[in-house]
Amino acid sequence: MVLKVSLIVVLLVICSCVVEAISRNHNNHNHNNINKNGSSLAAIKFPDHPSFSDVSSSGDNDCSFSNSEQLGHSVPTMTSGEETDEESEAFPAPKPHKNSVKLHLKHRSGSKGAEPKNSVIDSTVRDLTRIQNLHRRVIENRNQNTISRLQRLQKEQPKQSFKPVFAPAASPTSPVSGQLVATLESGVSLGSGEYFMDVFVGTPPKHFSLILDTGSDLNWIQCVPCIACFEQSGPYYDPKDSSSFRNISCHDPRCQLVSSPDPPNPCKAENQSCPYFYWYGDGSNTTGDFALETFTVNLTTPNGKSELKHVENVMFGCGHWNRGLFHGAAGLLGLGKGPLSFASQMQSLYGQSFSYCLVDRNSNASVSSKLIFGEDKELLSHPNLNFTSFGGGKDGSVDTFYYVQINSVMVDDEVLKIPEETWHLSSEGAGGTIIDSGTTLTYFAEPAYEIIKEAFVRKIKGYELVEGLPPLKPCYNVSGIEKMELPDFGILFADGAVWNFPVENYFIQIDPDVVCLAILGNPRSALSIIGNYQQQNFHILYDMKKSRLGYAPMKCADV
């Protein structure tokens, strides 16, 4: 027990020291403007807040702001309507169809005059905070009863399904096929490393912008009455304005999908709502009623026509007390592996896979990134599509995270000699590697990071080694160089798969004349994380049916 506590203390002290050092550096530098000379390396705007890898538990709260209807065993349904009229008559499909859903992630460039060094400093501080949160979640996961309760629930009620299905047709219609299109925006202009998804919630539908996060599960929105809420763009969601809002009763088995209060709140009245409390480890949290609502997204049919699809009975949190810096977002949309995530709830509609393709951060603001639910035949036929198996599933692993098993890394085709245990996920939940959309850079556990950094220093010749921007190292002066020649970099997975990256995915331009390695280190006991900066211009596939991660190099602006 002393050893466990010591590891946690060491981790927090190390991360705190790094954050303090970065902050001092931030105050002692004069900064240059973003390079506009056409370099392919991105000078990016990083998060001004921690992203949220959640630790969920239920609070001892009283969130019963509206009467809860007896929900029985209803499941989410999907209907559709015309885009030109948000309140037009729906025409549901007669049965579930495995159509694909393409959601556009609209990219917005950073603010004019943004200072690259400030951006990198802010991003690194927020990434380190997020990593602390991820690690706290691993530690505290051992004290949670969520997984065991979900397993018991599944055994007791194997025939129940809480996933969306298509509603019976109100009138005879032919099945609708096509791709569902919604908008996802880069948080760059907001000082955030996350991506945002435009969602229409309620009946009639109203627009909200939610942070997209593969490191968390719960979908939630700030709700009226907003007793303690952060500032957001646009009005708060008001359940009274929606005819499709339904509270989940504390007697409903779905209430067990959120952790029990400690001590548990007595569940007495038949219409008593199900309270939830989600804590994200850094002090950010959301508290409110666990409920059902209709989410609306756009469907683009094969002939190019745009229609609306209404996904009914989506489980989400109606947050009345919310704290944290969410950069104008109205809430969060979880894409984690757990049963509460939007990705999991969409599986019965579009199959057990989703993918995204993130454009590079220097792209024009009119260029969109994409998120696609369902099978993407174009991606599956891509000649350079590779797969590696998902890991995890062990005692101590967090069911939300997408683990992959790294064997080593390569620099210029040299397989580096990194101790095998560096990559292992222990039975206590320490270590392991995840792929994450909410972390910006890539972080490798020690001693892997030091070995990788030293390999680059050995192999890079002809460029002046400079003090760029701690903690990013090594950094090089590339003044007057039109085409940089830097070592190749790739990840070698335990099953033999290899992921090779273009140089703009692992070197970052922090000044017009300075580039730095965009990889940092973590303490040995912490997670290794493949962040979204390294995923740019790759089409990333999460195939849950075959338990594998796919990746294909692609110009994401053309997807």
Write structural notes for this entry.
The chain has 559 residues and is α+β, with helices and mostly antiparallel strands. It has helices spanning 2-27, 116-141, 146-156, 342-345, 347-350, 377-380, 448-459, and strands at residues 55-57, 77-82, 101-106, 165-166, 179-181, 183-186, 195-201, 206-213, 220-222, 246-247, 274-279, 285-300, 306-323, 331-334, 353-357, 368-373, 386-389, 403-404, 406-411, 414-415, 433-435, 442-445, 464-466, 475-477, 489-493, 498-501, 507-511, 514-517, 519-522, 528-530, 538-543, 548-553. Among the domains are: 180-349, Cathepsin D, subunit A, domain 1 (Beta Barrel); 377-553, Acid Proteases (Cathepsin D, subunit A, domain 1), CATH 2.40.70. 16% of the residues lie in helices and 29% in strands. A hairpin with an 8-residue loop joins strand 23 and strand 24 (475-477). It is globular and about 70 Å long. 53% of the residues are buried. Residues 1-39, 43-74, 82-97, 107-112, 145-179 and 188-192 have low confidence and may be disordered.
